[in-house]
Amino acid sequence: KKTDNMKKLFILFAAALIACTSCSKFPHEGTATESLAGTWMCTVYYEDGGEWVYYYEADFSTFNTAANLPTEMWVQDGFWSVQCKVDCDASKATFGTPGKVYDDIVYGAGVKIFNGKVTPDGTFAPVSGGKCDKIEMYVQYNDDDPEYGYTYYIVGYRYTGYPEDDGVYKDDWDLPAIN
Q1: Which of 90, 63, 91 minimizes the C-alpha distance to 77?
Q2: Which DSSP helix (H) or strand (E) runs through 22?
Q3: What is the pLDDT at residue 87?
Q4: Contacts of 133 (CB under 8 A, 6+ apart)
Q5: What is the rounded distance in angstroms from the CA atom of residue 7 to the CA atom of residue 121?
Q6: What per-residue confidence (pLDDT) applies to 5?
Q7: What is the distance in angstroms between the CA of the first residue and the CA of the last residue of the chain?
Q8: Rg (Cα) of the chain, in Å, rounded?
Q9: What's residue 22's pLDDT?
Q10: In whole angstroms, what is the distance from residue 25 CA to residue 11 CA?
Q11: Distance between CA 110 and CA 103 in Å, rounded?
Q12: What pLDDT does 53 receive?
């Protein structure tokens, strides 16, 4: 009986070892929008009287669609809690089309997301100081107060995973000129 149990254990171990080593024969590829995907610690500014005004801090997420195409991705907004499928060009790390209204699947609102881009190693984490990717985008919400019709500039860094950076947002961004 002991020998039979040892044989079964050996066969189970050998099968597991073969299964693990056979998996390494297949390439492990990321998604089509991997260069754009991530969780982002963002600072939100709005345009007021020709200058950017600090408004809010929120986490944003970007991720691939079920179709896994390099030309579309999801943007999930931790600011207004909307989620939209947007155009992108993963090879150029850009997203959003000026003038196009994207449908929010959470509230049904229309959202304009444009001139979005991810800059690899474009900034530093606020506490750990490590280089990390930077995200930027402009956003307009159609359910915003029509009297104001704000344009928001959203900028952030890719979540680092380091405990010292958790929940810490940057407030020293170089803000773009307002056209």
Answers
A1: 63
A2: helix 2-23
A3: 98
A4: 38, 118, 119, 120, 121, 122, 123, 157, 158
A5: 53
A6: 58
A7: 82
A8: 22
A9: 38
A10: 22
A11: 5
A12: 95
